[in-house]
Amino acid sequence: MGLDKEISNAKDLARRYWQACDAADAGALSEVVAPSVRWDGPWPIKEAGTAYEIVERWAAPLKAAIPALTRSYFILTAGLSDGKADGGPDGRLWVGATGYLEGVATTEVWTIPATDNHLRLRWGEFLCIEGGKIVEVQLILDFVDWFEQIGRPVLTPRAVPGVWCAATGYDAVDFPDTVPEETVRSLKLGRDLIYGGLNSFDESALSSMGMARFFHPNLKWYGPGGIGACLSFKEFEDFHQGPWLTAFRDRKAQDLASLFAEDRIVAGSGTSGVLATHTGTFLGAEASNARLDVSGIDFWLRDGDQFTENWVFVDMIKLFGQMGFDLFARMRAVG
Q: Structure pTM?
């Protein structure tokens, strides 16, 4: 089977997975996931190991709370991973996607109260496929942005809140004109950014990473709830990267669960893709000196030799939990 057909089949399997999740149909889900699947969900839902556990802990509660739930895709991409820091063997097949889960919550779920608000919930998910089955999943739901949408903010963004949109002038779902050479070029830029740029921080000057090589001056950086969107490279450095590296000076990207490209899109994921020590204040959380791991998901759009857009998920509930802060408790207290 050629790679193009393998990618097409993987995306079809992924759509079946999401259809089963949206219907909270454990039987249909068991047809596409391995009997012992590694499912890493967003905190506080955390882990599941079978199709029935995924439905019980994730899909069924969400469907019960939002009966008319719909799903949209901004990005739906697949490829063979090259996510080892040392460039060693990888080659696993992954599908990555992001978009909105939409609807009105009619009942409380995970202690989040129902409101009349039409919710647009940001989701990012990566699926690893082996032998025609999904064997590994990483899902992040942007709970902090959900809290903001119902008037219960738990963090104060430095950047612009509520900005999350599809790729500008590019079809990152159907990929009608994929060029193999563009895929190679994109993946190289992604690896150079992560392991050559980000990991070269000297714990002092942002310029030590040479980020201007990788990002266009008019970069659109769509960050998670609590951080917000940066609408230029300067805003990215001022509102996110500077404060982030003040708080986590020793952060290093590790081997990623996945890092792959399709044409001009690059996608990466990892439940512990970054390790860091919390040595400075971050979004009001004073230094705890906790050693922590960051669960994150990224998508990038390349134009020429630079990235022009970057969609970023961080499991902020997990991150702040490791620093000693319960953001769900803070949400409940706001009410």
A: 0.97
